[in-house]
Give the backbone structure.
Amino acid sequence: MYLILKPGLDPDLQNRFVEELKAARLEVVPLPGLNRRAFALVGSPEITERFATHPYVEECIRDAAPYKRVARALHPHDTLVPLGDVSIGGDSFIVIAGPCAVETPEQMQSVAAAVRAAGAHGLRGGAFKPRTSPYSFQGHGRSGLQLLREAASPHRLPIVTEIMDAEDLPAMMESVQVLQVGTRNMQNFSLLKAVGSQKKLPVILKRGLAATLEELLLAAEYIVDAGNEAVILCERGIRTFETATRNTLDLNAVAWLKTKTHLPVLVDPSHGTGLSELVPPLSKAALAAGADGLLIEVHPDPTRAWSDGRQSLDPQSFTRLMRELRPLAQLFGRTLP
Ligand code: PEP
Ligand code: MN
């Protein structure tokens, strides 16, 4: 909600009023212009509403957007999130690649070398896997983190991996550089608060299977509100009536999010399509739609992958894609660092 105070209000009274708002656990963000009479209030909608009819208030504007900290309206500049030697957001276009799941030391070492040689900026791989069936491979858990570390460190690749349980946060903080909150946990609010309560690791927040963009931004707001501003959104396809592809990659989301939030936006064309042959064209479309980078599944031998082989690129196709993306990025005013 935005408040405009009555003109000519005694500055002492105005200051006291602002203190009253803060005491009610609202954040008061002064807005430029209007002789310092305009404020955005960040906090509980029920509490902000109480001040709408305060005698000092000339006008109260109830905006449709319930998120504030992630809104571009209040922070016009792009947020840049560090990833090893590069940043996510701004002019650069970054690529994080690796297998769906951490399987073996050989698989991880081979894929890390391949994606590094192709120019990837980060290594992905799940040690904790959220699988639809309890009988599917669930990931190696904490020992998978060790395999990730051993594979990434010779190449100085930052590691991106999914966290499913706040209990694993200390182990993650010792082993990886970026946390991923998966689709199925986008609205696991206690997990969002947990990853938000530390500032060491940035968080990639994937859009829920059936989440609206407002719900995605409110989920991001939880993390930022808990104290961690390094949040990266990720469009990874949503459920629609279409069954030809695993999901429907919503590139509307990318262009829309870039206007509404200062947070970087990645696209995952692997889960978004479910088909490896669709990953290169949708990667290019994501770049054209304004995405800040890609999260791509790559496996040394997709036919033998323990999970998501059908949507994984082999190293050769990934290398070709990276080569094709470079000049395209330039065309769209981005650089592949
Ligand atoms: C993943 O990236 O490995 C993953 C499980 O993705 P999602 O949460 O988007 O399904
Ligand atoms: Mn996967």
Remarks:
- Residues 315-331 form the longest helix (17 residues).
- The mean pLDDT is 96.
